[in-house]
Amino acid sequence: MKLRKVTAASAAALVLALTATACGSDDKDSSGSGSGDAKTITVGIKFDQPGIGQKTPQGYSGFDVDVAKYIAKQLGYNEDQIAWKESKSADRETMLERGDVDFIAASYSINDKRLEKVDFAGPYLLAHQDVLVRSDDDTIKSPADLNSKKLCSVTGSTSAQNVHDKLAPKAQLQNYPTYSACLSGLQNKAIDALTTDDSILAGYAAQDAFKGKFKLGGFKMTNENYGIGVKKGSDLKAKINTALEKMVSDGSWQKAVDANFGPAGYKNEPAPKIGDIKS
I need a labelling partner for 68 at 20 to 30 A (CA). Which of 35, 53, 142, 278 fits? Predict the structure, then answer.
Protein backbone atom coordinates (compact mmCIF):
# COMPACT_ATOMS: atom_id res chain seq x y z
CA MET A 1 0.00 0.00 0.00
CA LYS A 2 2.82 2.35 0.87
CA LEU A 3 4.67 1.41 -2.35
CA ARG A 4 1.58 2.24 -4.44
CA LYS A 5 1.43 5.75 -2.93
CA VAL A 6 5.06 6.44 -3.76
CA THR A 7 4.57 5.25 -7.33
CA ALA A 8 1.51 7.46 -7.83
CA ALA A 9 3.36 10.49 -6.49
CA SER A 10 6.32 9.81 -8.77
CA ALA A 11 4.03 9.48 -11.78
CA ALA A 12 2.32 12.77 -10.94
CA ALA A 13 5.68 14.51 -10.63
CA LEU A 14 6.76 13.12 -13.98
CA VAL A 15 3.58 14.37 -15.68
CA LEU A 16 4.07 17.85 -14.20
CA ALA A 17 7.68 17.96 -15.37
CA LEU A 18 6.75 16.94 -18.91
CA THR A 19 3.93 19.48 -18.99
CA ALA A 20 6.23 22.30 -17.83
CA THR A 21 8.82 21.34 -20.45
CA ALA A 22 6.20 21.36 -23.21
CA CYS A 23 4.83 24.73 -22.13
CA GLY A 24 8.30 26.21 -22.00
CA SER A 25 8.97 24.98 -25.53
CA ASP A 26 5.74 26.53 -26.84
CA ASP A 27 6.52 29.88 -25.26
CA LYS A 28 9.92 29.96 -26.91
CA ASP A 29 8.53 29.05 -30.33
CA SER A 30 5.75 31.62 -30.27
CA SER A 31 7.83 34.63 -29.28
CA GLY A 32 8.77 36.83 -32.25
CA SER A 33 12.52 36.79 -32.82
CA GLY A 34 12.48 38.41 -36.23
CA SER A 35 14.38 35.44 -37.66
CA GLY A 36 11.53 33.60 -39.35
CA ASP A 37 12.05 30.63 -36.96
CA ALA A 38 9.32 31.72 -34.52
CA LYS A 39 5.59 31.35 -35.06
CA THR A 40 4.85 35.08 -34.79
CA ILE A 41 6.57 38.43 -35.00
CA THR A 42 5.31 41.30 -32.84
CA VAL A 43 5.06 44.69 -34.51
CA GLY A 44 4.22 48.04 -32.93
CA ILE A 45 2.01 50.45 -34.87
CA LYS A 46 -0.36 53.33 -34.20
CA PHE A 47 -3.99 52.30 -33.77
CA ASP A 48 -5.55 55.75 -34.20
CA GLN A 49 -3.94 57.43 -37.23
CA PRO A 50 -5.94 56.98 -40.46
CA GLY A 51 -3.67 56.52 -43.44
CA ILE A 52 -0.70 55.74 -41.14
CA GLY A 53 -1.78 53.05 -38.69
CA GLN A 54 -5.37 52.39 -37.71
CA LYS A 55 -7.23 49.56 -36.04
CA THR A 56 -10.64 49.02 -37.61
CA PRO A 57 -13.35 46.34 -37.34
CA GLN A 58 -11.92 44.92 -40.57
CA GLY A 59 -8.35 44.76 -39.29
CA TYR A 60 -5.36 47.10 -39.57
CA SER A 61 -4.69 49.63 -42.31
CA GLY A 62 -2.36 52.49 -43.24
CA PHE A 63 1.00 53.17 -44.84
CA ASP A 64 3.00 52.03 -41.80
CA VAL A 65 0.93 48.84 -41.70
CA ASP A 66 1.70 48.15 -45.36
CA VAL A 67 5.40 48.78 -44.74
CA ALA A 68 5.38 46.51 -41.69
CA LYS A 69 3.61 43.70 -43.59
CA TYR A 70 6.19 43.91 -46.38
CA ILE A 71 9.09 43.81 -43.92
CA ALA A 72 7.57 40.87 -42.04
CA LYS A 73 7.13 38.97 -45.31
CA GLN A 74 10.79 39.52 -46.16
CA LEU A 75 11.73 38.24 -42.71
CA GLY A 76 9.77 35.05 -43.31
CA TYR A 77 6.39 35.80 -41.73
CA ASN A 78 2.98 35.69 -43.38
CA GLU A 79 0.40 38.31 -42.51
CA ASP A 80 -1.43 35.95 -40.15
CA GLN A 81 1.82 35.49 -38.19
CA ILE A 82 2.03 39.17 -37.24
CA ALA A 83 0.95 40.12 -33.71
CA TRP A 84 0.04 43.82 -33.80
CA LYS A 85 0.61 45.90 -30.68
CA GLU A 86 -0.40 49.53 -30.12
CA SER A 87 2.65 51.77 -29.79
CA LYS A 88 1.75 55.17 -28.39
CA SER A 89 4.35 57.87 -28.93
CA ALA A 90 5.41 58.07 -25.28
CA ASP A 91 5.81 54.28 -24.97
CA ARG A 92 7.87 53.39 -28.04
CA GLU A 93 11.41 53.40 -26.59
CA THR A 94 10.30 51.48 -23.50
CA MET A 95 8.51 48.84 -25.60
CA LEU A 96 11.66 48.22 -27.63
CA GLU A 97 13.96 48.19 -24.60
CA ARG A 98 11.73 45.66 -22.80
CA GLY A 99 11.37 43.46 -25.87
CA ASP A 100 7.59 43.91 -26.00
CA VAL A 101 7.85 44.23 -29.81
CA ASP A 102 10.35 43.13 -32.45
CA PHE A 103 10.11 46.39 -34.37
CA ILE A 104 8.00 49.54 -34.49
CA ALA A 105 6.57 51.30 -37.55
CA ALA A 106 4.54 54.17 -36.11
CA SER A 107 5.31 57.58 -37.69
CA TYR A 108 8.52 57.27 -35.66
CA SER A 109 10.83 60.19 -36.46
CA ILE A 110 14.55 59.54 -36.12
CA ASN A 111 16.33 61.99 -33.82
CA ASP A 112 19.45 62.10 -31.66
CA LYS A 113 17.61 61.72 -28.37
CA ARG A 114 15.86 58.54 -29.50
CA LEU A 115 19.06 57.14 -31.01
CA GLU A 116 20.54 57.08 -27.52
CA LYS A 117 18.00 54.41 -26.55
CA VAL A 118 17.06 52.52 -29.73
CA ASP A 119 18.30 51.84 -33.27
CA PHE A 120 16.51 52.74 -36.47
CA ALA A 121 16.34 51.12 -39.89
CA GLY A 122 15.56 53.46 -42.74
CA PRO A 123 14.42 56.15 -43.10
CA TYR A 124 11.51 54.90 -45.23
CA LEU A 125 9.55 58.17 -45.52
CA LEU A 126 10.50 61.85 -45.42
CA ALA A 127 7.56 63.82 -44.01
CA HIS A 128 7.32 67.50 -43.13
CA GLN A 129 5.35 69.58 -40.68
CA ASP A 130 2.56 71.21 -42.63
CA VAL A 131 -0.94 72.63 -42.23
CA LEU A 132 -4.34 71.43 -43.34
CA VAL A 133 -6.91 74.06 -44.35
CA ARG A 134 -10.36 74.07 -45.92
CA SER A 135 -10.36 73.52 -49.67
CA ASP A 136 -12.18 76.82 -50.29
CA ASP A 137 -9.79 78.88 -48.12
CA ASP A 138 -7.26 80.80 -50.24
CA THR A 139 -6.11 83.14 -47.46
CA ILE A 140 -3.36 80.85 -46.13
CA LYS A 141 -0.63 80.59 -48.77
CA SER A 142 2.46 80.66 -46.53
CA PRO A 143 3.30 80.13 -42.83
CA ALA A 144 3.23 83.90 -42.30
CA ASP A 145 -0.45 83.91 -43.27
CA LEU A 146 -1.16 81.96 -40.07
CA ASN A 147 -0.70 85.16 -38.06
CA SER A 148 -4.03 86.06 -36.42
CA LYS A 149 -5.46 82.70 -37.56
CA LYS A 150 -6.74 80.01 -35.19
CA LEU A 151 -4.22 77.20 -35.41
CA CYS A 152 -5.10 73.80 -33.98
CA SER A 153 -2.97 70.91 -32.78
CA VAL A 154 -3.44 68.07 -30.33
CA THR A 155 -2.84 68.67 -26.62
CA GLY A 156 0.70 67.65 -25.76
CA SER A 157 2.02 68.18 -29.29
CA THR A 158 4.66 70.84 -29.97
CA SER A 159 3.68 71.39 -33.61
CA ALA A 160 1.51 74.48 -33.16
CA GLN A 161 3.92 75.99 -30.65
CA ASN A 162 6.78 75.55 -33.15
CA VAL A 163 4.84 77.52 -35.75
CA HIS A 164 4.00 80.22 -33.20
CA ASP A 165 7.59 80.54 -31.97
CA LYS A 166 9.38 80.47 -35.33
CA LEU A 167 7.04 81.44 -38.16
CA ALA A 168 3.79 83.09 -37.09
CA PRO A 169 4.06 84.73 -33.64
CA LYS A 170 0.53 86.09 -33.80
CA ALA A 171 -1.12 82.75 -34.53
CA GLN A 172 -3.88 81.92 -32.06
CA LEU A 173 -3.09 78.47 -30.70
CA GLN A 174 -5.97 76.09 -30.09
CA ASN A 175 -5.39 72.78 -28.30
CA TYR A 176 -7.90 70.00 -28.98
CA PRO A 177 -7.82 66.49 -27.47
CA THR A 178 -7.61 64.64 -30.82
CA TYR A 179 -6.90 65.28 -34.48
CA SER A 180 -10.47 64.26 -35.26
CA ALA A 181 -11.69 67.07 -32.99
CA CYS A 182 -9.41 69.51 -34.84
CA LEU A 183 -10.85 68.33 -38.16
CA SER A 184 -14.39 68.90 -36.94
CA GLY A 185 -13.39 72.39 -35.80
CA LEU A 186 -11.78 73.05 -39.17
CA GLN A 187 -14.86 71.86 -41.00
CA ASN A 188 -17.26 74.09 -39.03
CA LYS A 189 -14.84 77.07 -39.15
CA ALA A 190 -14.14 77.14 -35.43
CA ILE A 191 -10.47 76.98 -36.39
CA ASP A 192 -8.59 78.01 -39.53
CA ALA A 193 -5.82 75.43 -39.80
CA LEU A 194 -4.53 72.20 -38.29
CA THR A 195 -0.81 71.44 -38.06
CA THR A 196 1.26 68.26 -37.66
CA ASP A 197 3.21 65.99 -40.06
CA ASP A 198 1.95 66.20 -43.64
CA SER A 199 1.67 62.41 -43.85
CA ILE A 200 -0.65 62.34 -40.83
CA LEU A 201 -2.70 65.24 -42.21
CA ALA A 202 -2.99 63.49 -45.57
CA GLY A 203 -4.16 60.30 -43.88
CA TYR A 204 -6.98 62.10 -42.11
CA ALA A 205 -7.98 64.15 -45.14
CA ALA A 206 -8.10 60.99 -47.28
CA GLN A 207 -10.92 59.49 -45.19
CA ASP A 208 -14.16 59.06 -47.11
CA ALA A 209 -15.98 61.53 -44.84
CA PHE A 210 -13.48 64.31 -45.62
CA LYS A 211 -12.52 63.76 -49.26
CA GLY A 212 -12.41 67.07 -51.13
CA LYS A 213 -13.05 69.17 -48.04
CA PHE A 214 -9.45 69.94 -47.03
CA LYS A 215 -6.09 70.62 -48.66
CA LEU A 216 -2.47 70.60 -47.55
CA GLY A 217 -0.56 73.87 -47.46
CA GLY A 218 2.65 72.28 -48.75
CA PHE A 219 4.83 74.46 -46.48
CA LYS A 220 7.43 71.81 -45.48
CA MET A 221 8.24 73.55 -42.19
CA THR A 222 10.40 70.70 -40.79
CA ASN A 223 11.93 67.41 -41.93
CA GLU A 224 10.58 64.28 -40.25
CA ASN A 225 12.59 61.18 -41.12
CA TYR A 226 10.39 58.16 -40.35
CA GLY A 227 12.37 55.08 -39.33
CA ILE A 228 11.68 51.54 -38.18
CA GLY A 229 12.56 51.31 -34.50
CA VAL A 230 14.40 48.23 -33.22
CA LYS A 231 16.11 47.32 -29.96
CA LYS A 232 19.60 48.74 -29.52
CA GLY A 233 22.13 46.42 -31.16
CA SER A 234 19.50 44.24 -32.88
CA ASP A 235 20.56 42.44 -36.06
CA LEU A 236 17.08 43.22 -37.39
CA LYS A 237 18.27 46.67 -38.43
CA ALA A 238 20.31 45.36 -41.37
CA LYS A 239 17.60 42.87 -42.39
CA ILE A 240 14.90 45.57 -42.35
CA ASN A 241 17.09 47.95 -44.36
CA THR A 242 17.41 45.25 -47.03
CA ALA A 243 13.64 44.77 -47.03
CA LEU A 244 13.01 48.53 -47.36
CA GLU A 245 15.38 48.77 -50.32
CA LYS A 246 13.53 45.94 -52.04
CA MET A 247 10.15 47.54 -51.29
CA VAL A 248 11.26 50.68 -53.12
CA SER A 249 12.88 48.89 -56.05
CA ASP A 250 9.92 46.61 -56.81
CA GLY A 251 7.38 49.46 -56.71
CA SER A 252 5.56 48.35 -53.56
CA TRP A 253 6.59 51.48 -51.66
CA GLN A 254 5.05 53.91 -54.15
CA LYS A 255 1.95 51.75 -54.41
CA ALA A 256 1.48 51.99 -50.62
CA VAL A 257 1.98 55.77 -50.69
CA ASP A 258 -0.62 56.22 -53.45
CA ALA A 259 -3.15 53.94 -51.77
CA ASN A 260 -2.98 55.59 -48.34
CA PHE A 261 -2.26 59.27 -49.09
CA GLY A 262 -3.29 59.79 -52.72
CA PRO A 263 -6.92 60.79 -52.10
CA ALA A 264 -5.68 63.86 -50.15
CA GLY A 265 -3.47 65.07 -53.01
CA TYR A 266 -0.35 64.38 -50.96
CA LYS A 267 2.80 65.25 -52.92
CA ASN A 268 5.23 62.86 -51.31
CA GLU A 269 8.98 63.11 -51.37
CA PRO A 270 10.84 60.38 -53.29
CA ALA A 271 11.70 57.34 -51.20
CA PRO A 272 14.73 58.29 -49.07
CA LYS A 273 18.01 56.44 -49.28
CA ILE A 274 18.81 54.20 -46.34
CA GLY A 275 20.80 56.19 -43.78
CA ASP A 276 20.11 59.57 -45.41
CA ILE A 277 18.72 61.66 -42.54
CA LYS A 278 17.57 65.12 -43.58
CA SER A 279 18.12 67.73 -40.87
Answer: 278
